[in-house]
Amino acid sequence: MKHIKALAIKFISSLVLLYIILGVAFDMSFGNVFLITLILGIVSYLIGDLFILPKTNNTIATIADFGLAFLLIWLIGDSITYGDDIVTAAFASAVGVALFEYFFHKYMDNQILIKEDDNRISTLRYQTEASEELTPRIPNRKYEDEDEL
């Protein structure tokens, strides 16, 4: 249920953001923006938020989401529209998506992704003691008597 909530937050926020950038600024239709948002939201949630973010940090995941958003918006936008300025639109949209993803990753890290290290009861740090003498020294009476002579 937590993943559905996070995916809904991501989809609605991305739809509003991409409609402002692509729809208003670059005159793309709402249906095209909706399709781009749907594909980008699902792919970036699976790859960026569930695969890359738990294994790396927020900065790496945000950079990966920027590249993924740029490529997906450019490829999908180029195939469904007839505009000649799709690279600029894809770059502006990717910058906006990356800024949103930076804060969304903080939400994911704090609320959705459960770190197994935090749930650990004990640290299981075992320690072994070692001494300088591995075997006890047994005095040899024969040699001790010779020292006295």
From TrEMBL:
<keyword id="KW-0812">Transmembrane</keyword>
<dbReference type="InterPro" id="IPR019649">
    <property type="entry name" value="DUF2512"/>
</dbReference>
<feature type="transmembrane region" description="Helical">
    <location>
        <begin position="86"/>
        <end position="104"/>
    </location>
</feature>
<keyword id="KW-0472">Membrane</keyword>
<dbReference type="Pfam" id="PF10710">
    <property type="entry name" value="DUF2512"/>
</dbReference>
<keyword id="KW-1133">Transmembrane helix</keyword>
<feature type="transmembrane region" description="Helical">
    <location>
        <begin position="32"/>
        <end position="53"/>
    </location>
</feature>
<protein>
    <submittedName>
        <fullName>DUF2512 family protein</fullName>
    </submittedName>
</protein>
<feature type="transmembrane region" description="Helical">
    <location>
        <begin position="7"/>
        <end position="26"/>
    </location>
</feature>
<feature type="transmembrane region" description="Helical">
    <location>
        <begin position="60"/>
        <end position="80"/>
    </location>
</feature>
